[in-house]
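S.,

As promised, the nicotinamide-adenine-dinucleotide run. Input:
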Amino acid sequence: MTIKNICCIGAGYVGGPTMAVIAQKNPHIKVTIVDINAARIAAWNDADLTKLPVYEPGLAAIVGATRGKNLFFSTDIDQAIDAADMIFISVNTPTKTYGKGKGQAADLKYIELCARNIAKVATTDKIVVEKSTLPVRTAEAIKSILHNTGNGINFHILSNPEFLAEGTAVDDLLQPDRVLIGGENEAAINSLATVYASWVPQARILKTNLWSSELSKLTANAFLAQRVSSINAISELCELTGANVDEVAKAIGTDSRIGPKFLKASVGFGGSCFQKDILNLVYIARSYNLHEVANYWEQVIIMNDHQKRRFADRLIKTLYNTVSGKKIAVLGWAFKKDTNDTRESAAIYVTDHLLNEQAHIAVHDPKVPAEKVYTDLNYLNTRTEAENQNNVAVYTNAYDAVKDAHAIAIMTEWDAFKTLDWEAVYSTMQKPAFIFDGRNILDKHTMEAIGFEYHAIGQ
Ligand code: NAD
Ligand code: UGA
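Predicted complex:
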């Protein structure tokens, strides 16, 4: 089937950038992204491209070039579903916060709602593509809903997980290591492959069965996160032995079997997916009674929680065992640089811990607004909203955040932090002036020459 009309349900960090690139590379296909969140759709339609709801380098230019031509953002979900030949489901699949599997299993209610909605409104045959990250065998449930409508309409289900990373989404989409398509119907698989073949070399379009595709996505994230936890585990040993974790990472990363990527020790990984996807993998393994498998992967999360906690504890210990009443500047709130996404950011958990110890926190992030910082902290429910408001200040300027601070905690590796006037920063801080570099972005010798007491990860 030649695809002329695509609908994507979910205008988030995946749906927005992915569909923008598909539209740019396929001017003959009309792409409509729909969402129940009207404010989000309005932001995608904002004439001011700096106000798009997702910040990604290069994204605004692509949206600017395609929006209104063959890329559309709408809240009219039913109309877009019915008009489409191919429907991507790109809604959120968070960890369940209630009932069976609470805290581990993926909450599939949004996926099911999409499937039911498609079943209800479709009047022509459709290819339905799982773009969201889903537990292995979810397609079975979607098939069951779509194949039992009794209305004679044919649905083909494909799995096409997304591997983009935030902050580099546009580059990742334009030059993917691979595109993965899992399915049972060859014609449907080829229809989707043709959409990608507009810019992705055929050799990079992998075709598998449905279950391999679904499981590969969880597995890829588990392997990536495992590398971060592995190097973070070594960072603790480095701190006690005089080894330097960045030197160790370089030394092992030059082994072509290990490779250099994803070996940057940090305050702990964040982001909406690593934790949720590994917890989901753990849940799935346990549900098949594979306890050793589950325990093995769970350790990646345990290590990550330990790393975040350890960072905060080290800061407190170094500040003479108390941060009560002290001002701590938190530089960076996003879970990594070049994104405005804060989901599961290590900054949230480190700040929460410091607030428990009665610190006064001053936050600065180049892309995260103040309301988001408070929402993230309030969501934890550790203290009242008024207490968070009173003890946390958010600054749009880094120099205001660090003024009179006892210590700086670098939580995100924003390039702008590397080029701050650190001499000026030093001059306005309380002495001794401490830096806790959770991303190892600054040079220890330079910082010490200025006068800072500098603490990095794994050094
Ligand atoms: P997101 O929360 O940014 O966006 C999801 C959107 O879906 C929201 O705007 C929400 O309003 C909308 N939505 C939910 N239910 C809906 C419904 N029934 N009808 C219409 N709209 C609905 O999430 P995201 O970060 O884009 O992630 C989406 C999926 O992609 C998840 O499964 C995630 O694991 C996966 N994924 C995310 C990334 C990433 O970098 N964020 C990368 C790869 C895969
Ligand atoms: C990750 C994967 O890299 C993507 O392939 C995947 O599509 C996506 O999850 C998803 O499924 O959501 P993302 O979370 O956006 O992408 O960003 P990453 O670059 O993977 O970083 C995740 C976290 O690990 C960040 O907090 C980052 O700072 C941290 N990290 C990463 C390290 O601490 N050290 C590293 O060496 C690499």
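The longest strand covers residues 5-9. The chain is about 45% helix and 15% strand.

- D.
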